């Protein structure tokens, strides 16, 4: 959509407000999709929820690729948005639930890495499709997304179902078989199965070869009340942490940079369309490269340290970008140094975002909710994520016209400062812990956060 918007405006003769609606409506619809996906995945399973998301993607892509009018294009964007909501909720949950603690950070960050690869391929394909005729080029940019949707729908059917979801259905034998395939050893598989059974309210000594009855609240019923109306102190803290990290991921401006990078570079002094599209390819390469680095560091360095480093770098980059764009906007002559520094600041911002806040948002929020609350709790986080994404993408043009483009990035920088404080005080380290430990980790009445983010948990046998 980033590159397509340059041509849609010219072809369909629409204004900036319609462009903002087109950009942001996907995320409004994704909010609805994410809220529906939690309960859906508890009912039909994680795997078939991904298949459903793929089908919705395909329909939306075909409509956008057809797009004879603005109304049809908008309808396709809405349908695709519902698919985005489903996929963004279920992919990290599925990854977290099949992963062992030693590799969970790496595997759960892969969806974000692949999103970045998708953005990079989108930028590259935009560059080449942009050379086609006006009426064909932007339709190819949007319609080509139907191809990976088909691949995803068939590919996921070859993957195993989440063993944790199978336990919630009482299908212990199937869960045990899958855990033996995805664990590092037989002993680890048995330990994980025992912990999952306890988390699901099943006797750890029950026969694994028979279908067992599972408590009703473990199958998705009554979860909203337990999360929102009667949460325990630990669940309340978990919810605040999940909502907060999803809020700040987009409140700090990444969607403005990814979606409107051609406009930002144009404001900095790049004028030709082919050079604008080429400059955005650099954004995609930077994003993908540093998320790949993050996937390798998450299980070694830890979530918390990367998150604080990432946010600190974003503060510096946003401040620099705001300064350079303000100078360019008030200068009557072309300033090559300011143009170069603006582009460097954009790449620096994307790099620091991608090495921490980008992937960790999805890793962290998918692993901290208790098993019985995970799918629907994650759906709340994703809904907040999409709401903020929509807010930024639908208001960015209006905001920078009101307070200047430099002032807008100073605003994002101020929000990044607030984000750093939130992460420092409220997000403990989760590296190396099993999913079944998280509720204890977040128990305020039994724990305290030390300066480095570790948790000291008081137990009957001492301090852990």
UniProtKB/TrEMBL annotation:
Residues 1-431 form the Major facilitator superfamily (MFS) profile domain. It is found in: Membrane. The chain crosses the membrane at residues 17-36, 48-66, 72-94, 106-124, 136-157, 276-298, 310-328, 335-357, 409-427. Its main location: membrane. Pfam families: Sugar_tr. One of its GO terms (molecular function) is symporter activity. This is Major facilitator superfamily (MFS) profile domain-containing protein. It comes from Ficus carica (Common fig).
